[in-house]
Design goal:
Largest sheet: 3 strands, mixed
Number of domains: 1
Strand order of the largest sheet: 2-4-3
Length: 273
């Protein structure tokens, strides 16, 4: 289909520093998930080792040693574990998300509508990452890795980022998809179809793909965050950080199946014409 050719063309134009080389981007979703899991494990291990090292070497002079690491130290760890360089900045967030966290991860878009890097927005305090925020760090790092390993995420954003419907699409996604509010699938489908009305076939498919990709990376991220919350809890007595939400709370799988069904019907109708 023309849509697939268009995506391959955009992906070929995405620069190094935004995506990994084909050594890492080739393969199935399962292959990408394995690589992301391995990199997440390396990140967690390196971060925990640094916390432990500082606790041992600075405990006498600093009672809070081992409780935080600096933003610069965190960046050095990212540079160390990433298989290839990526353009990214680590920033401090003050905007809380659906579960009262402060993290975010997003692309930065240049004036030419291209992607020129990523922003990893973390709950830093005085440019320090505290130990109980490690699970949230792994959540946000997972988004960055999803984008770098699977360039279709970036290609999709480039293809619709300057479309008139993009803002409304984001609003619908936030209200009806990225939510724990128990909207019926019938209502979600009705609202989505209303947005798609009068769009070209290509725009419809790209808009639905955008929702699907967002749901997929959030599902991955919440699984990762939950896993490392459990790991951290094993090593930290009296942990105060509440457990994160689960992908099941958001019904990600149900919503992805809904999107797949809508995309299938659009393609089937287009092939008949």
């Amino acid at each position: 289909m023309a849509n697939l050719f268009f995506y391959k063309l955009i992906i070929s134009m995405i620069s190094n520093g935004i995506k990994f080389s084909p050594t890492y981007t080739k393969g199935s979703t399962r292959t990408h998930n394995i690589i992301r899991t391995q990199l997440s494990e390396q990140l967690y291990s390196e971060v925990m080792d640094l916390f432990a090292s500082q606790a041992c070497t600075e405990a006498k002079n600093n009672p809070k040693a081992g409780e935080y690491i600096s933003k610069d130290q965190l960046r050095e760890i990212f540079v160390k574990i990433l298989p290839e360089p990526l353009n990214f900045k680590i920033q401090t967030s003050t905007k809380r998300d659906i579960q009262n966290n402060l993290g975010a991860s997003m692309c930065t878009i240049s004036d030419e509508q291209g992607i020129d890097g990523y922003r990893l927005i973390l709950p830093l305090k005085d440019n320090q990452l505290y130990i109980e925020d490690i699970p949230e760090l792994l959540h946000e790092a997972g988004h960055l890795l999803d984008y770098a390993l699977n360039p279709q995420y970036t290609a999709n954003l480039i293809s619709i980022g300057n479309k008139d419907f993009y803002k409304k699409l984001g609003e619908i996604y936030e209200k009806f998809y990225y939510t724990i509010t128990d909207y019926s699938l019938f209502r979600i489908k009705r609202v989505t179809k209303a947005l798609l009305k009068n769009m070209s076939c290509e725009d419809k498919l790209n808009a639905l793909k955008n929702i699907k990709l967002r749901l997929m990376t959030e599902s991955n991220a919440y699984l990762t965050e939950n896993h490392y919350w459990q790991e951290l809890k094993k090593h930290r007595k009296g942990m105060k950080k509440a457990p994160p939400l689960s992908p099941l709370d958001f019904r990600f799988r149900e919503k992805i199946r809904l999107i797949n069904s809508m995309r299938y019907k659009i393609v089937a109708k287009e092939r008949k014409n």
